């Protein structure tokens, strides 16, 4: 098999690929890039297609024109039996939009399984336009001072030394989510209030449509305090939703509010609340986060072992006005993390800008803006005494689909939103392109064609058996596409057929979909760093 060796085309790169971590000019961690790949499947014949890429840590398939007949489905899964991850799409797919990025599957390969009930259709099916692949998971260190003083969240679990200092830090951190946005970007989000709202930075959602293509993963943490799990998307948790509604975002303040689907049960994770009076100068803080997409960590110490504190309030600088300064360690990917006080375990600021010191958004600014915009979030601030524990949102019943109108501040022509059921946990691994199809007819045929390609590929495709209107049986067929040079490729198709149904597979490769832009330090306004 000839392996696919694509060049890297990534937007806003600041580090070489060997680090496994890249960042936008605003500090969002980029953990992957998009590769062009083309496939068109017409509805009516079940089939399987495999995509693989050497050294990829995950693959997320890009769909367009996704429109399946009632009863049909597409399942994205791993061919590796040890990776128990799958995502199922029906109708018009994720959010019923027809064009979307599927939730990612860890590892070097994915299998796209189309299950058809065999009802003849006209004009339905789907196209694969490409796929996102994760960079190799090599950790990158970028710290200020004597090193990263954050610790795995398990170091704050009940019974630990740190838990005696901050008894609610571990419990509160359960409301923290790792966000994989549009298949390539990583940020940190957290549940705010009791109705399934999520806060993060606005610079994580410069395009509000990305909310519809967000994997929201809770409990992504190491199993012990000694397990650092410093790799992007490491130590898998639970992906409770693969879409969200964009409610509101302020570019000036740099915060966004999302709403998770109503069918998602969030009762295991609790929620955080904001302190109406805001931060206090020199008060002790802790910052639960997913720096660089690592397993969840908490920063509560600075160099020398001293407690992290609020360094300044009402500060003005390159990150904006009325900023809150702190030296708790963060990284790109920590964008959107809450800053809490162990005194009452309320959120006093939202981290959003890197440097030493780091800068955060004063929650008083956020609360004022929400009030001015008429946005109400139940239990966003305490109604009684503060620090009453980590009260969970009301439980949500599981469901398969939920539709809603276009949210506030969101393009109304995108169609209704469809909540996708929760998926199983996943863990990234480190990814040649494969594709399989079949057809039915009473004759055997063999064809050969030449096409161009930008990289070496290998594709196999196999049609699956399913009942037909004639006698409920079909014969399997296989199509193999081999691409062995950067200039040309040869496609050989062998089909064993019975009856009259047929299927056609088209696989092409085109130029890069992303440009490259570099930034020497990767840190600046709205960025993140370790301090």
UniProtKB/TrEMBL annotation:
<keyword id="KW-0732">Signal</keyword>
<feature type="compositionally biased region" description="Low complexity">
    <location>
        <begin position="430"/>
        <end position="457"/>
    </location>
</feature>
<dbReference type="InterPro" id="IPR009003">
    <property type="entry name" value="Peptidase_S1_PA"/>
</dbReference>
<dbReference type="Pfam" id="PF13365">
    <property type="entry name" value="Trypsin_2"/>
</dbReference>
<feature type="region of interest" description="Disordered">
    <location>
        <begin position="429"/>
        <end position="531"/>
    </location>
</feature>
<feature type="signal peptide">
    <location>
        <begin position="1"/>
        <end position="20"/>
    </location>
</feature>
<feature type="region of interest" description="Disordered">
    <location>
        <begin position="379"/>
        <end position="400"/>
    </location>
</feature>
<protein>
    <recommendedName>
        <fullName>Serine protease</fullName>
    </recommendedName>
</protein>
<keyword id="KW-0843">Virulence</keyword>
<dbReference type="InterPro" id="IPR043504">
    <property type="entry name" value="Peptidase_S1_PA_chymotrypsin"/>
</dbReference>
<feature type="compositionally biased region" description="Low complexity">
    <location>
        <begin position="478"/>
        <end position="510"/>
    </location>
</feature>
